[in-house]
Amino acid sequence: MADFDPAQALGEYQRRIESVLDRQLAPEATPDARLIEAMRYATLSGGKRLRPVLVYAAGATTGADDDVLDAMAAAVEMVHVYSLIHDDLPAMDDDDLRRGRPTCHKAFDEATAILAGDALQAAAFDTLTAGVRHLPGTTALDALAELARAAGLYGMAGGQAIDLGACGKPIDVAELERMHRLKTGALIRASVRLGALAGNPTPDTLERLTRYAECIGLAFQIRDDVLDVEGDPEVLGKACGADARLDKATFPSLQGLEASRERAVALVDEALAELQPFGQEADLLRFLARYIVDRMN
């Protein structure tokens, strides 16, 4: 058997999800041309595609079917992009750039951006429902519930509310960690669990993959916080120092840069330990864990 190249697999899955998203957001026969243009502008503008690739990578460990994984991968990315559109709005983080281009509300207008985010969230569940309807037993319902919880009050939206309410207020590391496990970590956790559920996971496999996802989700946010301090805006595709301007608590502001880097590396080591019982089928998951702390954008 030829050696598996995780970097090559990453690129292949990134190209695959681009194609899937392009098809899912086809502009033909849509009721409003400007709205679908805004949705496509925000979604098909590049990016790491980490969450959908995690869906594919986790699915590889449980023998999942690629067609089902396509729907799951597209759904989590649509939810992610919707959150970015809304995060960038003046009422939230008020950002002008995303992935090196004007944010959606700058390229179109604020109302269109809000609707584009709303429509992407709905499209995510439409796409997921169509893709999982033939899964056995209650797995399809479990998948829908997984994404709904990750996106809502007990996940991304709830974490964002805590984040907004904490601006300019004292917060300790434990509360900061809780916030980011919801705001950032919940959707990463759902991505891994969805991919695993699409196959035939044992309880131990699902538990290990869940713990892996929880570790890399927090490590991802810590790395984001570090890059906001020391990253290159040209590489990041957006301005640095946004957290400081908004008086947000971050891991570097509470623990310092070096301790934050060390915490992220320790979390990745924990994640990799959860993958020890797996063979080559988990190599992409291993690669992605290291990529999270090494990335420059």
Word description of this protein:
The protein is an all-alpha fold. It has a single domain (6-291), classed as Orthogonal Bundle (Farnesyl Diphosphate Synthase), CATH 1.10.600.10. It contains 16 helices and two strands. It has helices at residues 6-24, 33-43, 50-61, 66-87, 104-107, 110-132, 139-151, 156-166, 173-183, 185-197, 203-230, 233-236, 242-245, 251-255, 257-274, 283-294, and strands at residues 97-98, 101-102. The protein has a two-stranded antiparallel ribbon. A hairpin with a 2-residue loop joins strand 1 (97-98) and strand 2 (101-102). The radius of gyration is 18 Å and the shape is globular. The model has no long low-confidence stretch (mean pLDDT 93).
Blueprint of the fold:
Layout: H1 6-24, H2 33-43, H3 50-61, H4 66-87, E1 97-98, E2 101-102, H5 104-107, H6 110-132, H7 139-151, H8 156-166, H9 173-183, H10 185-197, H11 203-230, H12 233-236, H13 242-245, H14 251-255, H15 257-274, H16 283-294
Antiparallel strand pairs: 1-2
Helix pairs in contact: 1-3, 1-4, 2-6, 3-4, 3-10, 3-16, 4-6, 4-10, 6-7, 7-10, 8-9, 10-11, 11-15, 11-16, 15-16
